[in-house]
Write a structure and sequence with these properties.
Elements lengths: L2 H31 L5 E6 L9 H9 L16 H9 L4 E8 L5 E7 L2 E7 L2 E6 L4 E2 L10 E5 L14 H15 L1 H6 E6 L5 E5 L5 E5 L4 H19 L6 E3 L7 E2 L1
Parallel strand pairs: 1-3, 4-7, 7-8, 10-11
Antiparallel strand pairs: 2-3, 4-5, 5-6, 8-9, 9-10, 11-12
């Protein structure tokens, strides 16, 4: 290719880039001039949680009706600010706010998911899968395992589930949450003053003495043997105490 041909190619490429840039700028300008006539809100209820509804989301978007989006031009709508406002709600994990080609605003909200509820005289809260503390809601009560705790254990709003010790209890709760059988069978969890865990089951009159939240999978495997091979034969009301705390043994009394 000769020098002149190369120069012509560069000039053509440069003109093409400038043209595309101009068209993009024109399209963006036209988009910004569009007026929002409608706000569409979609809330993800993947886990059948209903902690936040359209009314609450709309209130966050409009500062409780002080600044309605309908009637505003797109250039006067700050999408990032709207997302931050929605995500400030305790039960919102993530929010996306974007403009459609018609200039209308679309909102997608993903909710936080509690996996347990801590109940004691000085504290009644949910915790999510990351160990964050969530308040109770007037809208909805989640069906999650309740946890009672000894008064010797500090309230969890101090970051209990965030430190190395609390993480082991959180891992235990995450294991239960992911296992359909144990999630359905375990009716209540208790943490005593020594940090040992016990459970009350949905079926049976026994207490499950689990011990410290270590070797979680091994302990549940032992419990599974009891539930599948022993209790169906001996009877579900046969034992009052089942202990899987110690390695390689199950104590039933």
């Amino acid at each position: 290719m000769g020098l002149n041909s190369r120069i012509k190619s560069l000039i053509f490429a440069g003109c093409s880039i400038l043209s595309i840039g101009a068209l993009a700028g024109f399209a963006s300008s036209k988009q910004n001039e569009k007026i929002c006539e409608k706000v569409t809100i979609k809330i993800d209820n993947e886990y059948n949680n209903y902690f936040i509804g359209d009314k609450e989301v709309r209130g966050l978007l409009t500062r409780e009706g002080e600044r309605k989006l309908e009637g505003l031009s797109n250039e006067n709508i700050d999408l990032k600010n709207l997302e931050k406002r929605i995500e400030s709600h305790k039960f919102v994990r993530d929010a996306e706010v974007f403009k459609g080609l018609d200039g209308n605003i679309q909102v997608f909200v993903k909710q936080n998911r509690p996996i347990a509820r801590i109940i004691r005289s000085d504290q009644d809260v949910y915790i999510d899968a990351e160990g964050n503390i969530l308040p109770l809601s007037d809208r909805y009560t989640a069906r999650v395992i309740p946890i009672t705790k000894s008064a010797l254990i500090q309230p969890t709003d101090k970051g209990f589930f965030k430190d190395s010790l609390g993480q082991s209890y959180l891992s235990l709760l995450q294991f239960i949450e992911k296992d359909e059988f144990w999630k359905a069978q375990l009716a209540q969890m208790h943490i005593d003053g020594k940090g040992k865990v016990s459970f009350l089951p949905q079926v049976g009159e026994h207490t499950i003495e689990f011990g410290k939240p270590v070797k979680v999978e091994e302990k549940f495997k032992k419990l599974a043997i009891l539930y599948k091979q022993v209790l169906p034969t001996m009877g579900w009301e046969r034992y009052k105490r089942v202990n899987v705390e110690y390695e390689d043994q199950i104590i039933c009394e």
